[in-house]
Amino acid sequence: METWDVIVVGAGAAGMTAACVAAAEGCSVLLLEQASVVGGTTAISGGMVWIPANHKAATGSRPDSLEAARAYLAATVPSVAPERLHAFLAHGDEAVRYLEAHTALRLQPVTTYPDYYPDLPGATLGGRVLEPEPFDASVLGAEFNILRGPLPEFTLFGGMMISRQDIPHLRRMARSWRSARHVAGLLSRYALQRLRARRGTTLYLGNALAGRLLQSTRQLGVSVRTGISVEKLMQKDGRLSGVEICALGVTTLIRARQGVILCTGGLSHGGDLRARFVPTAAGTLSATVKPGTSARGAQLALNAGGRLSELTEAGAFWVPASSFTRRDGSQGVFPHTVTDRSKPGLIAVDSNGKRFVNEAVSYHEFVRAQLANAATAVPAFLLCDSRFLWKYGLGRIKPFSFSWSVTAAVNDGYLTRASSLDELAVQLGIAPDALRLTVDHYNTHARQGDDPEFGRGCNAYQRHLGDADQSPNPCVAPLQTGPFYAVKVWPADLGMSAGIVTDDQARVLGPGDKPIPGLYACGNDMASVMEGAYPGPGITLGPALTFAYLAARHVSKQP
């Protein structure tokens, strides 16, 4: 029988981190991924990593402290498992230091990205969140082909990724020689890369994070196998002894001397399991990568004697999302995180044509408002005018899109377009008088940069995601230049907060809260330490890397 020290199931950020740390600790490691590519949801994400009091922020102008982080989390997270939250705070920076010392992962502080509730005690205006440094994926060679690509809707020209710093240059390239030169450099680099690769090899965001971890698995001798389905966890004498896998229809047993770590992506596509933790109005839409087998890690853990977190309707991390069908027939889900809702000149309305939320709040809070008004706000509509669409885009419609691509989106039903607000209301099934009244009321104040109804742009987080060129309020401008556009948005999860119950070492807990020897869970498989709250950017990846590190260090010490 094939035997390894440690077997890791799932090759997203948590899985690759756990595999790399276990290998760095001297273990032989097998990493199994059900899909044909690695990276999981991390590869299509923003790649933010929330690590309070990290040493990188301490060297900058926004120092942080564990005391401040504890105060902020006390104000935002209704924790029922404080020992795990304490472990995250105590070991987060330790995990970052270890990974940068032993792997190719490199993170840098985002010094201007505020926490999502910046006015609460202990909040910071930047530095608490880290992002991966850009990555040249050409070093992966042939293995670049097994790295999951980013969402096509977040790339340009069929495969070019851009950084957050590139976006202002793209907006100003027609009126700034410096920006035009910058964009020309981006295009030239991309053209050269496409001569050698199927897409651009300069990676940013979550794709850079996944790419760096994939490179690290190679450097540390981790055996990565894709297209492998784990069907069952094997136990002997009360301890995890291995896994039963299926590949190409053939079932095989593989032994694990020291343990198995589950990192399969959580309950997002878990059908009835997921439905237990979300309101009925939330539906089933998810912005996460769909696995071949739903809720794989959770079901494996349950069958081995583990348990899931307590039933709650705060079991997901939310984002408003629009859906569509791509040219290749695949289903697309666009998460409306930061690219459009906070920008000046857009409003969200319900089926009665009324605003129901401050559009610039976090994506999690936006959907919470949808669910609180589910009878009329699920789905909701994001509305803008032609000026906004050209400058900022809307959903999968990128800024500066050609008219033919906008018309194509109208024809396939993704966008609704009308020459007047009354006509737009009719197409959306809204009473024209109601929509016109809402827009008129909003515009009256927006011309002065005000939003007395919802206070849009009222804090540092909202203003950060607005447009600094818009004065006096970077989040507020009127809708006035036809044609007008709308896109329908639904609640979707960015990952589940509910999941497998673990302890502060990521060990899966069974009856009586006793650890199941040799079984660990981290990433979205693990019930989140955030308990359904979303205090800042990267609060899924921060704990994912931290507990993957803790799980791997712990399992590596097992006899």
Account of the protein in words:
There is one protein chain. With 559 residues, the protein is an alpha+beta fold. It starts with a strand and ends with a helix. α1 runs parallel beside α17 and α14 crosses α15 (432-446). Among the domains are: 8-14 and 226-312 and 495-528 and 537-556, FAD/NAD(P)-binding domain (3-Layer(bba) Sandwich); 317-493, Flavocytochrome C3, Chain A, domain 1 (Alpha-Beta Complex). Strands 1, 2, 8, 9, 10, 11, 18 and 19 form an 8-stranded mixed sheet that branches. Strands 12, 13, 14, 15, 16 and 17 form a 6-stranded antiparallel sheet that branches. The chain has helices spanning 13-24, 55-58, 66-76, 82-102, 166-172, 177-194, 205-219, 272-275, 296-303, 363-372, 374-377, 386-392, 403-411, 421-428, 432-446, 460-465, 541-556; strands at residues 2-9, 29-33, 49-50, 107-109, 129-132, 135-136, 202-203, 223-226, 229-236, 239-247, 250-262, 316-325, 331-335, 346-349, 380-385, 415-418, 484-496, 507-509, 515-521.
